[in-house]
Amino acid sequence: MLSYPSGMTVSNRALGLLADALRAHRNQRATRWRKLTPGRQALLVVAYLRMGETYADLACGFQIGTSTVYRYVREALALLAAMAPTLAQAIDVAQAKAFVILDGTLLRIDRVAMASGRDRPFYSGKHKAHGLNVQVIADPVGRLVWISPPLPGARHDMGAAREHGIIDAICDAAIPTVADTAYQGAGPAVAVPQRRRRLDPDTGRYRRLSNNQREVNAAHARRRGPGERVNAELKNWKILRKIRSSPSRAAELVAAVQTLMITNA
Question: Any idea where the Transposase Helix-turn-helix domain is (predicted)?
């Protein structure tokens, strides 16, 4: 089997964090000799997350067995997921910001049962694809603050945010938040764009927004822009572009990537 070198962008800080966690885990368990050092195992796991490499490709590149790759990845994902912040910790961070940006995004999946309508909860009509809904909180300069556990993709952003307790937490802490129109009615702390006015009964058309309202919407969009960059950065981790594992394991995957993204920031 032939192999070739490849490259990926990830900070030494993220690699060091994972390598230190793996080293401490091995010492705690008094694990016997392993094929890869903690540093090499950390590199393997980051390659899996960042590049979306298959177990077979990683086994070839690191010259170990496919089952060993699986064990190494599962071990590291559990450690990274345990280090991910909770919503309460994220709210503490958000309180130190001028404002935060709340947005939802869809992580596509391919392993979903199609029989008897079991795929329905995962199908997003907006995106015309099966996936998982995650809620993302970012700061004004586009740094990640928190990612929610995933919910089935059919869930509306507002419903998902309420189920995770994000709306109540933001309003209770009075954190200024900007969001899109999906979060209409979230409360006084959440600012959303001006919506088109109702139908004009005389013409049967929507009444246009005034010039002032359009200017407000443009300013709102500029404030919301860094949150879109966080969503794009999230999907730069290729493992999340289309999740091949069971949706039930996606929460651990998202939490692991979240830990590395916050460390990279």
Answer: 34-85
Q: Do 95 and 175 form a contact (C-beta atoms < 8 A)?
A: yes
Task: Please tell me whether residues 102 and 196 are part of one structural domain.
Answer: yes
What is the per-residue pLDDT across 219-258, written as a single tens digit (0 to 9) for each?
A: 999 999 999 999 999 999 999 999 988 888 999 999 999 9
**Inter-residue contact 170 to 102 (CB < 8 Å):** yes
- HSE-CB at 182 with a 13 A cutoff on CA atoms is 17
**Mean pLDDT for the chain?**
90
Of 82, 100, 121, the one marking the end of a domain is: 82
Domains of the chain: total: 2
- Asked if 208 and 139 sit in the same domain, the reply is yes
- Residue 112 has a CB neighbour count (10 Å cut-off) of 18
3-class SS at 149?
Answer: coil
Domain that holds residue 65: 12-82
How confident is the model at residue 168, as a pLDDT?
96
Give helix 38-51 / helix 12-29 axis angle, nearest 10°: 130
- CA-CA distance, 82 to 80, in Å (whole number)? 5
Encoded tokens for 169: 């937490």
Q: Is residue 179 part of a domain?
A: yes
